[in-house]
Write a structure and sequence with these properties.
By secondary structure, the chain is α/β, with parallel strands linked by helices. Helix content is 49%, strand content 14%. The protein has a 5-stranded parallel sheet, with helices on both faces.
Length: 174
């Protein structure tokens, strides 16, 4: 199964996705890590464009074809990226479970964004202004939405694993 996360910076995607990956013993794939590696290589400059996502799709597909569950951690803000993740799952012959994290408390969200420290060497985190100005397309497909404003990481992971357990075995075995 491909589990594709989405959400603005500071909503808890990385923390939740990593915790879920440990719980499920899944492959964890973070687009920020891939993008920063491209930047560090010196070959792409500071703007790597779609390269991180394209590399992520390829690595995800390889692991899905091996029968592994893959958790994709990215902002995934655009229709084009969401459609691409769905195409990866389709081509690998596995179901996709899409999760959007959001934070309904603007004050808490801003504090998270402004208090974060980069955990990838050289990674430049967005400012609150950058988060507010970011393009974020509305969803056009069914997906799980989880508000992280007033719940713990463990509660979010429990919500997700409960919903995953409701996916029929036939769907899981595509």
């Amino acid at each position: 199964m491909l589990i594709a996360f989405a959400g603005l910076p500071g909503t808890g995607k990385t923390t939740v996705a990593q915790t879920l990956a440990r719980k499920l013993a899944a492959v964890y794939l973070r687009i920020d890590t891939l993008e920063q590696a491209f930047i560090a290589s010196g070959s792409g400059g500071a703007d790597v464009g779609p390269a991180g996502y394209l590399a992520g799709y390829a690595v995800a597909k390889d692991n899905l074809r091996l029968g592994l569950t893959v958790i994709a951690d990215s902002v995934n803000a655009l229709h084009v990226t969401r459609n691409a993740w769905r195409r990866v799952a389709l081509e690998a012959g596995v179901p996709i479970f899409e999760i959007e994290l959001m934070c309904s408390d603007a004050t808490a969200h801003r504090l998270r964004v402004e208090a974060r420290q980069a955990d990838i060497p050289g990674h430049k985190l967005p400012t609150w202004k950058g988060v507010l100005e970011r393009q974020y397309d509305p969803w056009e497909s069914a997906h799980l939405v989880v508000d992280t404003a007033n719940v713990s990481v463990e509660q979010v992971v429990e919500t997700i694993t409960h919903r995953l357990s409701m996916v029929s075995p036939e769907t899981r075995m595509l």
